[in-house]
From TrEMBL:
It comes from Zea mays (Maize). Residues 21-232 form the Alpha-N-acetylglucosaminidase C-terminal domain. This is Alpha-N-acetylglucosaminidase. Pfam families: NAGLU_C (PF12972). InterPro entries: NAGLU, NAGLU_C.
Amino acid sequence: MSITRNHRRFFLSEVSGILPQPHLWYSTKEAVKALELFLDAGSTFSESLTYRYDLVDLTRQCLSKLANEVYLDAISLYQKKDSHGLNAHARKFLEIIVDIDTLLAADDNFLLGPWLESAKSLAITEKERQQYEWNARTQVTMWYDNTETEQSKLHDYANKFWSGLLKSYYLPRASKYFAYLTRSLQENRSFQLEEWRKDWISYSNEWQSGKEVYAVKATGDALAIARSLYRKYLRP
């Protein structure tokens, strides 16, 4: 895979169609600078609901862009057959997912729970309740026209950055993906695309049929969490 810059955007050329590629449409440095300014205003605006919403969203975006860069580095290390470097970057990528989930949990607007509970509340019968929850879970993950080894063309079509969804759905999926990359190097064979697809499609369908209950109210101090994550990952 090669990366070129043009008008502050990244254009990604895939060397292999096997490995999914992130989109890096604008400068991470500029986004982090905006976050610095936002955090500086925290003492003044921390009681504002709109400030906290934007703070969580901007911090989430900066961490997402960092995760994209960590992923690209991980793939580069995989292509160089550097298993130690790959594993280190995989751990960092997964840790970022967990930390973003914690951040999102601090604002009511970034929770999976209300989406699922609102869908279930429309039901009259238990059968409807189960169907509506399945519909809600499927809509934000992988639409249900997949086969055992071919994911829906609309997988992640309506994906959301919601606490609960990241930790219960995307974290296990990413963990499986990196495990397949690691196994590929350990066994000195190509990435097992069909096995990987079968594994994560099966997990997706299992998650869609799940009945786990997720939080509907925020927990944690958004400003304190954002400041902590800025110091951990983004401060120069």
